[in-house]
Amino acid sequence: QLQAYGGGLVQAGGSLRLSCAASGRTASSYAMGWFRQAPGKEREFVAAISWTGGNTYYRDSVKGRFTISRDNAKNTVYLQMNSLKPEDTAVYYCAAGPWPLKTTIRAWGQGTQVTVSS
């Protein structure tokens, strides 16, 4: 089971940090990452990190602004979001699955709302 939290309302240019805690063996040896879904749009990939943390990748629109990291001792993955833009507004979902986490997802978190005001 994945539990995501840390969303909220922030002004454009601001920052938020999302966290996703995995319970049990949900994230054991899996890559973890974040997806998002804006109103009226399909869910899209945001960022992923490998089990060891040695590999990461991001969608182009967040490169240089978002940073994904993980702490396996705490079974937690983080998404540091800086220089937020109104177009980043969405419900953010954490996910776990085999690397590279783009097509095969084994577990989803419940989602946390991020709203960026202009």
Global Rg: 13 Å
β-strand percent reads over 45%
Largest sheet: 7 strands, mixed
Task: Please report the distance between the alpha carbons of the first and last residues.
Answer: 34 Å
> Helicity range of the residues?
under 10%
User: What spatial form do the alpha-carbon principal axes imply?
Assistant: globular
Strand element count: 11
Strand-and-helix sequence, N→C? EEEEEEEEEEE
Number of helical runs?
0
Average pLDDT confidence is 94
Question: Which ranges are low-confidence, i.e. pLDDT below 50, for 5 or more consecutive residues?
Answer: none
Q: Helix/strand-derived class?
A: mainly beta
3D structure, described in words:
This protein has no helices and 11 strands. The chain has strands spanning 2-5, 8-11, 16-22, 31-37, 44-49, 56-58, 66-71, 76-81, 90-97, 107-108, 112-117. Strands 2, 4, 5, 6, 9, 10 and 11 form a 7-stranded mixed sheet that branches. A hairpin with a 6-residue loop joins strand 5 (44-49) and strand 6 (56-58).
